[in-house]
Write a structure and sequence with these properties.
eight-stranded mixed β-sheet, alpha+beta
């Protein structure tokens, strides 16, 4: 696609691209016209995710849907309090979850704030200050040190110009800029400056190529918009899958419960339907089936999950990981891939000298070739100067370990501190160490390192490269303010006027110092005619060719060993040795800095003073003369000490770690091997790749970039249709090709912001992916990852606003800690779901078996609501504080797709045995208690019979009478006239107490039924006076009222709700409820850990909820108004003791179940552990 005509070519006479002889810039009219064409020079802020959208998204919770359906059912079946409670619960959790997900952060606005407000522009032949938003392509803009670049521009003129492009590359190194383009392996051109980058040195003139969203930073802004197609978080997906299964099971329970209830003619005590009222029986059977299904739904699951996630976010904050979106706590636990930046995250982000490589001749006659000597600074903790300088060959792994543990150098056998001032220098290594330490201290006078008294952290003031040398000087015992430092400063006074400052063009700097009368600099002794010495440091490729001398050890008899200038100059062989050592440092991911010294006599000093400018002074110092190598400094950004163990932990947990960096490939690969991302045996092609491998072509033309392949629908945003504003964006390979590359590559180098988005999006197609970053360039990838993790210290506001988690210590290990915390929370969610489904499944099964066995149900109505709140919702919140299981970080991440939260081992060895055991114990308790209060168990026996002699023969607890209508059909009364119960007050009694109850006669009011507790029928009237035997049409003998004897008086019937059978059934139900209530809260303790409960740590949270639960139970039983409201009766001490046997037995059964559960779990985890190690290795 050909680009439209734009003023990208400089106006005026030019000799080469970017070299302009003269120009008046655009006219105001031209600028106004172009402003209409290209629009204002500003970034689209994008839209942050609105609170309303989050509210809608939070309703994608099937448990909410099931709870609302339940509320409707309860409302229409008369359970109004329960319906109101469920609606209130859903609305509360819905709102609180939405608040937890809404961060209010806007990365787009933060990115916009990085643009300057005004800039210097050449318009109408005059340099004017205009608003940045009015800048257009073709404008000439002047920039200088301290400015923020207002647009993407090509450099026309430059004077020592360098910019910090960390916003685009993530790398902190300054980038030198000049009019001539140099070939590099980076993504950004050396003859261009880019919008939102900062000018760190020099000045320049540039011509605007792109503004607004057409700039490189515009590509970042483009991808900061929230992803509308983002899926639900993993836990929500798992809960919805579980809810689907529960919903299906509930339909089955409704059908089974309704049919079983109707076919068995089941009724509760006291009965509400007549024995022949089929419509009433069917209606209540349907209601009973619905309420059984309702008891199966874990209404409290969203509440408990919300609390657990909130607790997890608080605990993660205590571990320096601040959560901005609550659901990220669980997502962290499911992460399968962690993509991480290198600088500042895996590494300290602070340069430190790791190695000194010197070249010394031993001073013996005939020794014309110098020998390399490698010195090591150790330990490496960024700017922390603790440590010393050792001979590298002596620094074995065991000695390093001792030093890492804080062992003093003098206590490490076989290791010598080469620069220890308390000892005399002996040997070439000690001489080199002391000379290098002195030169590093004197040559970095403008840089200071100091400790922050508030935080204890070491800080650098000045150049980071010089700070690394200053730290090395400290390790060589030349510390700021020390006696040795004061002597060096006083004896080697700096000639400030002769200094050569560093510039990006020179890539060198030099300081000149006076020599004391002894003509020495540390352990180096110079010729007597020398008055000064220059310390020069710079890039080896610039300085190596100017070296002409070598230091050698002077071993004159009777004098101490010192370093002196060798009489013979540097040989070609020695120069080649230095070059090869420089290459070796690069392969170790070390940045090389060459340190050299040159003695100066009076004439050379005078020539320096006469030189005009720094460049001329440098030429004097580099002119033929004794410029001697002091050493190559291998400067290293050391990995954080905690990173390698964290990488190993990730691999054990089945988590891949992928490094994405803007640095060069050899450095990235070396760091990756050092910290364990890739092994030494990994193939180079698979271990590390350049991000250019992701592109469809090796390069692109900014103006003419276009898609070279079919525009079929894509799942990745990097495959979106290009517009006029982003047509310069790189073209990426197909999804399948990208997936193959990203699935086998652990290290990506030379990454630009869109490359990071591409890698992350490709990984998220198959895995849950976390992305860490600190710069503006990382923000789009942070947005696209399942979890974006920003650095809290070094992170920009753009990155922080795009992130889900912010690390307050910028440490990769904190990411791993967040993953561990996420797995802990998910493990506790598993425990809650297992507990909740177990107790609810047991309650549902109790009701179903009670119907089938025709025995009183142990729980119903408002009791279910109270038990759900006081046992199923509030107490399990204590699980949020439980410790993680020991295996949580030794198994691979869970598979989110199709996850039911619980697996086969949970269901077969914990859930099913618990449901069966709990059901059996509760029904046993209920039936035993009912029998001890009535002498009967079955509901139909408790309700009674109209067959003549049923009570007398012990076939029923109550006797019904009635009348024979025409046709011989018997119509029974709605209440019995006689009940007889056998009551055991205690197990110690050998015989029960027999209680006879007769309807009182005559009764004053029809509605007033008085219980007469004696064996005299009808207060002495006798049965034969009021009742007679009668036979119905089926030939069954029943009892019929003698209407003449009763007359106008009401029938002497018992109140069915207070008969001994009804009271006995209610007592049995109360015992069953106590068994459920106590059994569930006590068994919760066994769900706290997979191990034996007795070995679990003390939990204050569980203790508090246990006390709360028991207090609620006491109120329900022994506060008369409350117990009457919920349908319970007070229990005697014997009855309460009987009810407590079931919970105790249940806890014992739970611990016995866990024996087999642990065995199955060990087998499963051993298999998963092997899979974890395979999955995490590239």
């Amino acid at each position: 696609m050909a680009s439209t005509e734009t003023p990208f070519k400089p106006t005026g006479e030019s000799t080469s691209y970017g070299a302009v002889k003269s120009s008046r810039g655009l006219t105001s009219d031209e600028a106004a016209r172009l402003l209409v064409v290209y629009g204002p020079n500003q970034l689209d802020g994008g839209q942050k995710e609105s609170f309303l959208r989050i509210l809608v998204k939070q309703m994608y919770n099937l448990i909410f849907g099931l709870s609302l359906v339940t509320a409707m059912i309860c409302y229409y079946t008369g359970e109004t309090p329960k319906s109101y409670f469920l609606v209130s619960l859903v609305c509360t959790i819905w709102f609180l979850n939405s608040v937890g997900e809404y961060s209010g952060q806007d990365p787009g606005a933060a990115l916009q704030s990085m643009s300057p407000e005004v800039c210097d522009v050449l318009r109408d032949g005059l340099l004017q200050v205009i608003p940045v938003t009015e800048l257009v392509p073709g404008d000439f803009v002047s920039i200088k040190m301290g400015d923020i670049v207002p647009a993407d521009m090509v450099i026309l003129e430059s004077v020592d110009l360098a910019t910090n492009e960390a916003a685009l590359t993530g790398e902190p190194h300054d980038a030198a800029k000049r009019a001539e383009e140099l070939l590099t392996d980076g993504n950004l051109r050396t003859n261009m400056v880019y919008k939102s980058t900062s000018v760190v040195t020099g000045s320049g003139l540039g011509r605007v190529l792109a503004t607004g969203m057409r700039t490189e930073v515009g590509l970042i802004a483009k991808r900061l918009a929230p992803d509308e197609s983002a899926p639900l978080n993993p836990l929500q997906q798992s809960i919805n899958t579980l809810a689907t299964m529960i919903g299906t099971l509930s339909v089955c329970v409704i059908a089974l419960g309704t049919v079983a209830s109707f076919l068995t003619g089941y009724q509760e005590m006291p009965p509400v339907c007549g024995t022949q009222d089929s419509y009433c029986l069917a209606h209540h059977s349907i209601i009973r089936g619905l309420l059984m299904a309702i008891s199966l739904i874990p209404h409290g699951l969203p509440l408990v999950v919300m609390v657990m996630l909130r607790v997890g976010s608080i605990l993660m904050a205590d571990r320096n990981a601040v959560v901005t979106r609550q659901s990220s706590v669980d997502t962290a636990g499911a992460i399968q891939v962690i993509c991480t930046d290198k600088t500042g995250t895996l590494t300290e982000g602070k340069m430190a000298v790791k190695l000194f490589v010197g070249l010394l001749r031993d001073g013996h006659e005939g020794a014309s070739v110098g020998q390399c000597m490698e010195l090591a600074c150790y330990p490496l903790h960024g700017l922390d100067p603790t440590g010393a300088i050792f001979l590298s060959s002596e620094l074995t792994a065991n000695r390093r370990q001792l030093l890492d543990q804080g062992t003093p150098v003098e206590d490490v056998p076989g290791l010598m501190d080469l620069a220890d001032p308390s000892t005399d220098p002996s040997g070439a290594a000690a001489l080199l160490a002391r000379a290098t330490a002195a030169a590093c201290f004197l040559g970095c006078h403008s840089t200071r390192i100091a400790r922050d008294h508030r935080t204890g952290a070491w800080l650098a003031m000045g150049s980071m490269s010089e700070a690394a040398l200053k730290v090395a000087a400290h390790k060589g015992h030349v510390e700021e303010g020390s006696a040795l430092a004061c002597i060096l400063n006083s004896e080697h006074q700096r000639e400030a006027a002769l200094e050569v400052p560093f510039s990006s063009k020179r890539k060198m700097s030099a300081t000149v110092h006076c020599l004391p009368p002894g003509r020495s600099l540390g352990s180096i002794h110079f010729p007597e005619n020398c008055t000064h010495a220059a310390i020069i440091k710079g890039a080896p490729d610039r300085l190596l060719e100017n070296l002409s001398a070598v230091l050698e050890v002077s071993t004159s008899p009777g004098t101490a060993e010192v370093l002196v200038m060798a009489e013979e100059g540097m040989t070609t062989e020695e120069r080649n040795v230095i070059a090869s050592q420089n290459d070796a440092l690069a392969r170790q991911a070390l940045r090389s800095l060459l340190l050299a010294v040159r003695p100066l006599n009076r004439e050379e000093v005078a020539e320096l003073r006469a030189a005009d400018g720094a460049e001329a002074r440098l030429q004097v110092l580099l002119s033929p003369g004794p410029l001697a190598l002091l050493g190559l400094c291998g400067i290293f950004d050391p990995p954080r000490a905690s990173v390698p163990p964290s990488i190993r932990m990730c691999h054990e947990a089945g988590i891949r770690v992928v490094m994405i960096t803007g640095d060069q490939q050899p450095t990235a690969l070396s760091i990756g091997k050092l910290i364990g991302i890739v092994g030494d045996g990994d193939k180079h092609a698979q271990g590390a790749r350049l991000c250019s491998d992701l592109h469809r072509s090796s390069g692109f033309v900014r103006q003419d970039s276009h898609r070279g392949h079919g525009a079929r629908p894509r799942g990745m945003s990097v495959h979106d249709e290009k517009t006029e504003t982003d047509k310069h964006e790189k073209v990426y390979k197909d999804e399948d090709e990208l997936h193959k590359l990203t699935s086998e590559t652990a290290i990506w180098s030379r990454a630009c912001p869109t490359d990071k988005v591409c890698i992350v999006e490709s990984l998220t197609q198959e895995s849950l992916c976390a992305m860490t970053g600190d710069g503006v360039n990382d923000a789009p990838a942070l947005r696209r990852a399942d979890i974006g993790v920003a650095m809290g210290i070094a992170g920009t506001s753009v990155a922080k606003n795009a992130a889900d988690i912010i690390l307050m210590d910028d440490n990769f290990s904190t990411v791993v800690a967040a993953v561990a915390e996420g797995r802990r929370i998910y493990g506790n969610v598993q425990k809650y779901v297992m507990f909740s489904l177990s107790v609810k499944g047991a309650e549902c099964l109790c009701l179903l078996v009670a119907i089938l066995a025709n025995v009183p149900a142990p729980i119903h109505g408002v009791q279910q609501l109270i038990n759900a709140l006081c046992t199923h919702m509030i107490p399990p919140m204590a699980l949020a504080w439980e410790d993680a299981e020991s295996y949580s970080m030794k198994v691979p991440p869970r598979e989110v797709k199709g996850d039911l939260v619980l697996n086969k081992v949970h269901l077969l060895t914990r859930w099913l045995p618990f449901v069966l055991c709990h059901m059996a114990l509760v029904l046993t308790t209920t039936c035993t208690s009912v029998y001890m209060q009535t002498g009967f168990v079955r509901v139909d026996h408790l309700i009674g019979s109209s067959v003549n002699g049923s009570v007398a023969s012990g076939m029923a607890a109550c006797q019904f009478a009635g009348v024979i209508e025409e046709g011989g059909r018997f119509i029974p009364d709605n209440a019995p006239f006689h009940c007889r119960c056998s009551i055991w007050r205690s197990m110690l009694h050998s015989r029960p107490e027999i209680v006879d109850e007769w309807g009182n006669y005559p009764s004053q009011e029809l509605s007033e039924m008085v219980v007469q507790r004696n064996s005299t029928p009808f207060a002495g009237k006798g049965m034969t006076n009021l009742l007679k035997e009668c036979t119905d049409h089926m030939g069954i003998v029943r009892q019929c009222w003698i209407t003449e004897a009763i007359g106008a008086d009401a029938l002497p019937l018992l109140d069915p709700s207070v008969t001994c059978a009804a009271l006995g059934a209610k007592t049995g139900q109360t015992s069953g409820y106590v068994a459920i209530h106590l059994g569930e809260i006590l068994s919760l303790a066994t769900f706290r850990t997979d191990g034996f409960y007795g070995k679990a740590r003390f939990s204050l949270a569980y203790t508090l909820v246990l006390c709360f639960n028991i207090s609620i139970l006491s109120i329900l039983l022994y506060v008369p108004s409350v117990s009457e409201l919920v349908g319970l009766v007070p229990l005697t001490s014997f009855q309460l003791l009987l009810s407590c046997l079931s919970p105790i037995a249940l806890c014992v059964c739970c611990e016995l179940m866990k024996v087999e559960y642990r065995r199955q779990l060990r087998v499963r985890n051993s298999l998963l552990g092997g899979a974890a190690s395979v999955a995490s290795v590239v």
